[in-house]
Amino acid sequence: MRRVRPPVLSLSLLMALPLTACAPANAPLYCFADPAQVWGVSPLPADAQPECPDSDTVRSEVRSGKTRIEQFALPADQAETVLKLMQGAGYAVVSRKPDDGIQLEAILRKGGDQVMYFAEHQPGRTFVTLTGYGHGD
Prior knowledge:
This protein is α+β, with helices and mostly antiparallel strands. The chain has helices spanning 11-20, 56-64, 81-88, and strands at residues 37-38, 42-43, 49-51, 67-75, 92-97, 103-110, 113-122, 125-133.
């Protein structure tokens, strides 16, 4: 039986990524299989801008299959936009912390796929991070 390992990214590192390590607009979107999709299950909203962390460590973990991460910048007050898309694609919310005006957090699950959802309110925008287990050993 295969042992399930937690994602390699620590929560503190993950939460710091949107503030300090977002890729510049001209950087390749290495963390997306398809930048026109959300987690490969739903079309990207027209007003969402996909981003990837500008971190060599995260880039290495994504490329090796240990970690999966997608990030999106959306207009302000859209903390639930991507969450609703994931739910529409069959992901169930198994745990959720209410939106406290700073961020909304949820754990989503569909079959064996578990996704951590963070929507952070930033000045003039909402920054959403999806992360989950990779496909590596």
